[in-house]
Write a structure and sequence with these properties.
The longest helix is centred in the N-terminal third of the chain and has 22 residues. Among the domains are: about 100 residues, Sandwich (Immunoglobulin-like); about 90 residues, Sandwich (Immunoglobulin-like); about 100 residues, Immunoglobulin-like (Sandwich), CATH 2.60.40. The protein is built from four helices and 24 strands. The radius of gyration is 34 Å and the shape is elongated.
Amino acid sequence: MSIREVGAIAAAVAAVAVMAVSCARIEPPPGGPPDPTPPHLIATRPDSFAQIPGFKGDVEFRFDEVVSEGGTPNQGTGTGDLEKLVILSPTTRAPDVTWHRSRITVRPHEGWRPNRVYRVELLPGITDLRRNRSTAGKVLTFTTGAPLPATLIDGTVVDWTTNRPAAGALVEAVLLPDSLPYRGIADSSGHIKLGPLPEGQYLVRGVLDENRNLKLDGREAFDTVRLAPGKTAAGELWAFVHDTTPPRIREVTVVDSTSASIELSQSLAPGQRIALSQVTVRTLPDSTPIRVTSVLPKPLDDSLNRRATPARDTTARDTTARDTTRRDTTAADTTRPGGRPGLEVGPGRPRARTEPSALTSRPPLSDRLILRVPQPWKPEGKYEVEIRGLRTVSGVTGDVRGGMTVKPVAAADTTAARGADSLKRRPPKTRADSLKRPPAKKGS
């Protein structure tokens, strides 16, 4: 083979490699004005609320342009970029999600089962090749022979640790006795509206899905409620971490001269009263008992021992303050929920938004106790703390024990203070100071 033929073959191989690389990734066409609009869903297949006995095809979402398949491929594990945006119910396995340029198809890994109600939810987040992200989702409900569903479950998921609604929480409604799980996502206010679902008895679970894998994992907070047939209101689901092990002390630290903080491995049952007879504090190594005045959860101790803030002096009037006798037209109208002055409700006018209903009152969860004693801790002293019959929020009772060492108080460094004082900047000399003559020396 001649050198010229070898060169021609090498050039052909290079051209094929360049074409393969260019075809491996779809890029938006060059030139033209930028397109800031996200992909728009134009059609779904099958139609929503369709009854299709013996359905064997794919659920399809069709867009008005080519959508991105993401940087993480779909492998049937639920970790692909498109797989994370699809919730298929009722199934416990990740669905098969396939990208077809301007179409996305979905089917269950185990195939379609007869006489079932299927719910396919496409979450917001579909992007085009210019990374324009869609903020709208779509829910497609159809049956493979079962009657059309009409049950709509609503409620609110609350993070009990923070006493706030859990935005984006995972919601599972398990149809009993077949244990068919229907799943959805709570909105930004923690509110859930899952359906339509088949009629029956449900076990509704609200989960703080921290890793976003659309299932309940160990150490994730959740709460459940059982709904009898015909019941649809789940109410408030106060999610907390469930643990079947007894509590234990993680650390005991000094707060001030007469108090210490006890950090526990689990949150305590709210409203639990800890009697002083349950608490023992001993000095080490002689095990001399020390009297205890109180042991309270940190939120309760803070409210009882909060230092009063000094009152603000209002005797001197601020002459630059705004005249409060005039009406503030920018303030919210408190005569109706969510209303504002000048915002009328009627045909062709915007409707006033109402605030979400307030949560019911529950004591906050806490995994810290504040222990107080009448006498100050001894410097460099060692103590042992024991609390008996401590109950967690999961209902598990146990005895806890831990040690504490009082750190010595560091002596004030006076040399540093003197050094800082010596470095203070002297005031600049004035012209009058520079004209002053220094005092004459004796004997001159």
